[in-house]
Design a protein that fits this description.
By secondary structure, this protein is mainly alpha-helical. The protein folds into two domains: about 160 residues, no CATH class; about 60 residues. The protein is built from eleven helices and two strands; from the N terminus they run αβααααααβαααα. It has a two-stranded parallel ribbon. α2 packs across α9 and α4 packs antiparallel against α5. The radius of gyration is 23 Å and the shape is elongated.
Amino acid sequence: MTNTIKSAVLAAILLGGSSAALVPAAFAQDTGPLVPGIAVVNLDAVVANSNAFKAGQQQRPTTYKATIDQAQARKAQIEAQLQPLAAKFEKDRAAPGANQAALQQEVQQIQGIQQAGQQEIQRILQPVAYSEAYVNEQIEAKLDDAVKAAMAKKRISLLLTPQAVVAANNAAYNLNQDVLDAINVSIPSATLQPPAGWEPREVREQRAQQQGGQAPAPARAGAQTQGR
């Protein structure tokens, strides 16, 4: 969840979707684990299903409407620029004795416009991506305490991620709902717009590495709890 400046997120924004839909979640409840003291939690799913995250996803298209509209308009302009070039390429390629060197130049021109366009749209949408990253970080800052509270409530001593489990009865071992309940209490809502000059954690870590060769900090405070 910390890598929020990916093209997949930007594409979801342009298409009017939500990156939360990319994170499946199982929140089935049962009386307790079959083996006392052991549970499984999907922290990405917990974040994506939290009230603060969902509120941000609902509010962001309105708050950043001008930015999203600008990106969509620029996307349409780039597509209009590419259409005649693509049509010319198809025509030239179908012609008898087509000049392969000339065709390669046309391909390079089209690809260059596409790549430059994608980068431009990402720059336009950066405030939107940063907003989601800012909300995520506010929620993730509460994860460690939420996980500890859920573990104490269910008397869990060993907490695993879904990736560490080959097979399990989700209803019996799932701690998602307990962590989600704790998160919703500790952070019922999050600030949508980051302060001026704010950058996502991954950008800050990259900058720190470049400046001082520092190792990246853990992606999430809650990750420390899982290993306990």
